[in-house]
Amino acid sequence: MLFTVERYAIRASARYLRRCFSTSVDVSVNHSREVAQQSNGSPTSITSEAKKSLRIAFLGAPNVGKSTLVNQLIKRSVCPVSCKVHTTQAKAHAIYCEGDTQLVFMDTPGMVSEKECKKFKLAGSFKADPKASLQAAEVVGIVQDAENIYTRHKINWNILGLLTEDVRKRIPVILIINKVDRLKKKDILLDFVHTLTNSKVSPDFSDVFMISALTGDGVDDLRTYLLDSAQPRAWEYEGHVYSDNTCEDIIRQTVRAKLMDILPNEIPYGLQVKLEHFDPGPDDSIKALVSVTCPTKRIARLLTRGSNNRIGQIAVSTEEALRHAFRTSVRLKLAVQSPT
Questions:
Q1: Nearest of 234, 152, 141, 154 to residue 189 by alpha carbon
Q2: Angle at 179 between CA 177 and CA 185, to 5 degrees
Q3: Which residues share a beta bridge with 232?
């Protein structure tokens, strides 16, 4: 990786300076009572002429950690994440503001082929949304799973199909190696990164980042690189906005993701999750009721039986994630329904 050290030594100095002098961000869930307010400064005091922004699209195969990475980058759990594939079903914008700069991250569903869409009856967003995000992006991040021994040494063909010669000339492409914390032998990491960067079919990567989206290792350097890449122009979103999804959407999607985490096999894909009641309080606290409709009584019993029932575990873990997303108190009740 000597070529990386030589090529980006100057940029590394800039990253260090930004880390020393940038505004720090407190990510404590009790730091702010604002449900839809960024906690890192007062963007309204910045003149339009001084503002900068950047749109970033992340592409990758299913379950490579794109949504987890976006959550780390904006320091809020607004994108649903789980251990199963296809947790993200449609593109979403997550927004991060620091000083005079706004970053708009476009989280996309995992890249799949036309054949896979038909076989698993996936929504049209799985094919349309990555294309739409790519059209709007100013930087593209290709996320690779370092732990997957079958795919880590090659870029997904579905991604390469989108990165036409015209796109590669127009948009800088960076390579993001995720889950490096899972590798015990670092020489393996260097070996497949060398293969990726020297492959004839790979894009000419502008930069390479090795990160762990789960632990946050390396994420600060990636965020700093993107902040440095922002272009002078008006912001796309108001400074207090951190997602183009509503609070109700985030609640429903987070519950669905937690169900996918805790239930085995294909069971969670057949559940219907609906927000029945949403009550923001005068102190910005949130109370919500979400129903989970099961296709059979057997699956409903799987969620509710026993003193340590699964639905109770899901409610607790969902509340924790939502407190981190909204930076306020959240009380969530889950109601399990089944056919009579």
A1: 152
A2: 90
A3: 52
Phi, psi of 274 (to 5 degrees): -135, 130
The three-state secondary structure class of 174 is strand
SS3 40: coil
Nearest 5°: CA angle at 84, between 78 and 85?
85
pLDDT in tens, 1-15: 433 333 333 343 333
List, for residues 198-251, the tens digit of each pLDDT value: 999 999 999 999 999 999 999 999 999 999 999 999 999 999 999 999 999 999
The most distant pair of C-alpha atoms in the chain lies apart, rounded to whole Å, by 67
Q: Where are the alpha helices (DSSP H) in 163-279?
A: 165-170, 186-198, 219-229, 247-262
Put residue 327 in one of left, alpha, beta given phi > 0 → left and psi -120 to 50 → alpha: left
Quick one: pLDDT band at residue 37, thresholds 50, 70, 90?
Answer: very low
